[in-house]
Design brief:
Layout: H1 3-11, H2 23-48, H3 56-74, H4 87-103, H5 115-124, H6 128-150, H7 155-159, H8 163-216, E1 220-225, E2 230-233, H9 235-243, E3 258-259, H10 273-278, E4 283-290, E5 297-308, E6 311-321, H11 323-363, H12 369-396, E7 404-407, H13 408-426, E8 428-433, E9 439-442, H14 444-460, E10 466-475, E11 478-485, H15 492-495, H16 506-510, H17 519-529, E12 533-539, E13 543-551
Parallel strand pairs: 8-10
Antiparallel strand pairs: 1-2, 1-6, 3-4, 4-5, 5-6, 7-9, 10-11, 11-13, 12-13
Length: 560
C-alpha cells in the first residue's frame, strides 16, 4: 500500500493497516489515488482549456470514472471470485484512455495516470503474468487511443508512444517483485508473531504452573541472582523469613534469629545457608533453627547453584520444616538414654552377684548344670551390658578418649585372640598381616572396640565360613587398619545406609544374624574422635573391605 493511499485512508478516518481491511474497502482504497489525481486535474483543465469539458470523450472518461469508483465501493467483492475486482483497474484504463484522448492537448502527462491501475494489478499478487500482459496492453491502448479515434493509424503515430507501455511494464515488474517480497516478509513476520504469541502464552502457562506449584508445596523456596538479591520467594518461605526476623528484608542481617543445632548459638553470616549458596556451594539437609521460644522451628536446607554458560548466575534454596522429625529423634535418643541408664545399674549388680556365685561354686568344687548355667547367665548378662553401653554411647553422642602411645600390632593381636573362639565356631579362618611394631597415639580400649566391631561383623556376615584378614601399615603421618572378608557383602542400596543407627541389611535379616545395627555407628564415632576416617568397599556376594585411617599423633599430651 502506498503512502498516498495511507494518507487518503487517514483522511477518511480509517486507521487500520491495509491488509486488515475488508476486500471491498481495499478495492475502494486502491481506486482513491486515481480519483484524487483526476480531481486535481479538473481545475487545471478548467484554467488552461475550458473547452475540454465540451469534449465527449473527456466527459465520458469522467462519467466512467464515477461509475467505476461507485462500483468499487458498492459491489461486495469478497463474495465474488478473487480476480473479479480486476474489472475496476481494467475500466480505469478505459477512463484514462478517454481522458487522454479528450484532454491531451490541454494537460500534459494524462497518459501517466496509467501508473495507478498498473500499481493496482501488480499489488494484487494474483496471476502475475496475466496481470503484466493486461498492464502492458491497457497502457498501449491508452497511448494509441488518440491515433485510433482520429483514424491516423500510421506506423509513426503508433510507434512514437511505445516507450510508455514498456516503462509501465517495468514499473509493474518492479512493484510485483516488491509485492512478493513484502508478502513473504509479512508472512514471516506473522509466523514470528504467532510463534512469539505461542511462546508468550506457554511462558504465562509455565509461570502460572510454577506459581501454583510453589504456593502448593509445603516447602519454602527462594531464588537468588548472582548478586545475592532475592528474585523469587513463595509464601511458605516468607513465613520462615518472618520467623527469623527477616520480614520485609532481602538483605543479610547480623541480628537474624538463625541458630545452629543446639538451638542457642546464632549462626554467623558466613555460616548461613544463603551465604554458603552464594559461595557456589551445593549442599543438602543442612539443619538450622529459626526463631526463638515455642515458635522456634527446625529447617532442613538444600541449595543448588544456577549457571549460565558455565558462569555462576545465582542459587535456589529449599527449606523443609523438620521440627517434628528432629523432636521425635531427640525424644527417641532421650528414651534410649533413659532406658539404658535404668538397665545398667541392675545389670552391673547381676553380673557382680554372678561373679560371687561362680567363686563360691569354684570353692565348693561344684560342676555340672549349676556351674554351666551360671556361666551362661554371666555371658548373656555381659553381652546385655555391652549392648546397653553401646546404646548410651550412641544416645549421648559424646566420645571421651584417653590417649596414650600404643603399639597397634599388639592391639590387633589381642583383638584376633578375642575373636578366635567365635571364628572357630563359625568356621571362619582368621589371619593377619601386620608389622612387628606400629606405634600410634590412641585410646587402646576404644581401638580394641573398633577392631572387635569390625571382626565381629566380618565373622557374623560370613555364615558359610571363609577367611577374614586384618592388615595394618603406616603411611606418612598416619596409620591404616584394614579388615577384609569374603562373606555375603552388601548391595549398593545398603551401602548408602551402612552408618545409620539401627540399620541392618536385608540379607542379614533374612539370615537371622543377631545384632542391633550400632557397631559400625560406634566404630565411625570412635575413629572420627581420633581425627580419622572410615572407608569401605563391598560387593554383594563377594565380601567387604573396611579401612580405618587415623593420624599417628605420636608425642602429643594425653587426652589430645
Amino acid at each position: 500500500m502506498s503512502n498516498f493511499e495511507r494518507r487518503a485512508l487517514a483522511l477518511l478516518g480509517i486507521q487500520h493497516e491495509f491488509h486488515e481491511l475488508s476486500l471491498r474497502l481495499r478495492v475502494a482504497a486502491s481506486q482513491l489515488p486515481l480519483v484524487l489525481s483526476v480531481l486535481v486535474t479538473l481545475p487545471i483543465v478548467a484554467v488552461v482549456s475550458p473547452g475540454t469539458f465540451s469534449e465527449s470523450t473527456f466527459l465520458l472518461g469522467i462519467l466512467l470514472l464515477a461509475v467505476a469508483t461507485l462500483a468499487s465501493v458498492v459491489v461486495p467483492w469478497d463474495r465474488l471470485f478473487v480476480p473479479a475486482y480486476w474489472v475496476i483497474p481494467l475500466v480505469d484504463f478505459s477512463v484514462i484512455g478517454f481522458l487522454y484522448t479528450g484532454g491531451r492537448s490541454s494537460v500534459t502527462g494524462l497518459s501517466l495516470l496509467c501508473v495507478f491501475p498498473v500499481f493496482w494489478l501488480a499489488w494484487s499478487g494474483a496471476a502475475t503474468r496475466l496481470a503484466a500482459l493486461l498492464s502492458f496492453a491497457g497502457t498501449l491502448l491508452v497511448v494509441w487511443a488518440p491515433a485510433i479515434s482520429d483514424g491516423a493509424g500510421s506506423a509513426k503515430d503508433l510507434a512514437s508512444p511505445l516507450l510508455i507501455p514498456f516503462i509501465m511494464l517495468a514499473i509493474f515488474t518492479t512493484v510485483a517483485i516488491v509485492e512478493k517480497d513484502t508478502v513473504a516478509q509479512h508472512k514471516r513476520l506473522m509466523e514470528a508473531e504467532n510463534n512469539l504469541q505461542g511462546s508468550l502464552q506457554e511462558s504465562r502457562l509455565r509461570s502460572q504452573l510454577l506459581n501454583g506449584v510453589l504456593e502448593t508445596v509445603d516447602v519454602g523456596v527462594t531464588a537468588l541472582d548472582a548478586d545475592g538479591k532475592t528474585i523469587l520467594m513463595n509464601s511458605r518461605q516468607r513465613t520462615n523469613h518472618a520467623l527469623a526476623g527477616l520480614a520485609g528484608s532481602t538483605d543479610p542481617r547480623d541480628d537474624a534469629l538463625i541458630f545452629g543445632l543446639d538451638q542457642v548459638t546464632p549462626l554467623t553470616l558466613a555460616q548461613r545457608p544463603t551465604q554458603r549458596a552464594m559461595r557456589e556451594e551445593s549442599f543438602s539437609d543442612m539443619i538450622v533453627w529459626a526463631g526463638t521460644g515455642k515458635r522456634q522451628r527446625a529447617l532442613a536446607v538444600c541449595a543448588r547453584a544456577l549457571r549460565d554458560n558455565g558462569k555462576f548466575a545465582g542459587a535456589v534454596l529449599a527449606y523443609s520444616d523438620v521440627t517434628d522429625v528432629v523432636n521425635a529423634l531427640n525424644a527417641k535418643e532421650d528414651f534410649v538414654s533413659s532406658v539404658s541408664h535404668e538397665l545398667r545399674t541392675p545389670l552391673t549388680s547381676i553380673i557382680g552377684y554372678l561373679d560371687l556365685a561362680l567363686d563360691d561354686a569354684e570353692e565348693q568344687n561344684l560342676e555340672g548344670p549349676v556351674r554351666t548355667g551360671l556361666l551362661v547367665a554371666q555371658r548373656n548378662a555381659e553381652r546385655l551390658l555391652t549392648l546397653v553401653s553401646d546404646l548410651l554411647t550412641t544416645a549421648s553422642g559424646v566420645m571421651s578418649l584417653s590417649k596414650s602411645d600404643e603399639n597397634l600390632t599388639e592391639l590387633v593381636r589381642t583383638a584376633l585372640a578375642s575373636a578366635g573362639p567365635r571364628a572357630e565356631a563359625a568356621g571362619v579362618q582368621l589371619s593377619s598381616d601386620v608389622p612387628a611394631t606400629l606405634p600410634a597415639r590412641v585410646d587402646p580400649g576404644r581401638i580394641l572396640q573398633v577392631l572387635d566391631n569390625l571382626l565381629s561383623n566380618a565373622i557374623k556376615y560370613s555364615p558359610d565360613g571363609g577367611a577374614v584378614t586384618v592388615r595394618a601399615w603406616a603411611e606418612p603421618g598416619s596409620v591404616v587398619l584394614e579388615v577384609t572378608d569374603n562373606g555375603m557383602g552388601m548391595s549398593a542400596e545398603d551401602q548408602r545406609e551402612v552408618f545409620t543407627k539401627f540399620f541392618r541389611t536385608g540379607q542379614v535379616k533374612k539370615a537371622a544374624i543377631p545384632g542391633v545395627g550400632l557397631g559400625l555407628v560406634i566404630t565411625k564415632s570412635i575413629v572420627e574422635a581420633h581425627g580419622g576416617t572410615v572407608a569401605f568397599e563391598s560387593e554383594l556376594g563377594s565380601g567387604t573391605v573396611f579401612c580405618v585411617y587415623m593420624p599417628a599423633g605420636l608425642g602429643r599430651s594425653s587426652g589430645s
